[in-house]
Amino acid sequence: EVQLLESGGGLVQPGGSLRLSCAASGFTFSSYAMNWVRQAPGKGLEWVSVISGSGDSTYYADSVKGRFTISRDNSKNTLYLQMNSLRAEDTAVYYCAKDYPRYCSGGSCSSAYAFDIWGQGTMVTVSS
Amino acid sequence: QSALTQPASVSGSPGQSITISCTGTSSDVGGYNYVSWYQQHPGKAPKLMIYEVSNRPSGVSNRFSGSKSGNTASLTISGLQAEDEADYYCSSYTTSSTAEVFGGGTKLTVL
């Protein structure tokens, strides 16, 4: 079964740091780009960051650029999000989401810029 | 980066059809066929319903369809059912400083 399982959320003070993890199973992890998407309480979805299957390309939302770092360990089938200098407005449920492929060739897949598999989410609360 | 524009709410009766719009710019919705739609029930993770404007992933009902005209994409749900009541979000690839942008979401109420 294809599955994503996030962990690492919790309560942190403003200015603090937290690292989220997302464990993947049931698919060839290294073939797909992976994303983080967040949702503040009662609000809509906000795309946060994406990393390519190999890990050599990353992109960030302006709201987190310079504070958050996305990474992956393909040997452990795990995606990470290092969050530094946290602010109250970073309070949200954080989801990891697998990229939906347009096509796959030679062990890598091109992106359809859609997210077909989502984790259950992990809550991050930034408050003093 | 501004979110794509969706109506806050739409409603319809069982069996009817409804359409949710998603308006962007030529840098996102209008410029690329990378518009997706997601369904989210309360307390649950989003579910991909449409990708690349009009394609349905395996397992998604053919009551859900997508289209695009200019800078506006649309999701149509035909034969409304009670279980369709949920929040719906569009998203698009964008050439702005980020890679992806979501709409603000639309709450669908089945009367």
What does this structure look like?
The complex is a heterodimer of chains A (128) and B (111). Chain A is built from no helices and eleven strands. Chain A has strands at residues 3-7, 10-12, 18-25, 34-39, 45-51, 58-60, 68-73, 78-83, 92-105, 108-118, 122-126. The mean pLDDT of chain A is 96. Chain A is mostly beta strands. In chain A, strands 2, 4, 5, 6, 9, 10 and 11 form a seven-stranded mixed sheet that branches. Chain A has a four-stranded antiparallel sheet with strand order 1-3-8-7, with no helix packed on it. Helices cover 0% and strands 58% of the residues of chain A. Chain A is elongated and about 50 Å long. In chain B, strand 7 (86-93) and strand 8 (100-102) form a beta hairpin. In chain B, the strands form two sheets. In chain B, strands 1, 3, 4, 7, 8 and 9 form a six-stranded mixed sheet that branches. Chain B has a three-stranded antiparallel sheet with strand order 2-6-5, with no helix packed on it. The mean pLDDT of chain B is 95. Chain B has strands at 9-12, 18-23, 35-40, 47-50, 64-69, 72-77, 86-93, 100-102, 106-110. With 111 residues, chain B is mainly beta. The termini of chain B are far apart. Chain B has no helices and nine strands. Chains A and B meet through strand 5, strand 9 and strand 10 of A and strand 3, strand 7 and strand 8 of B.
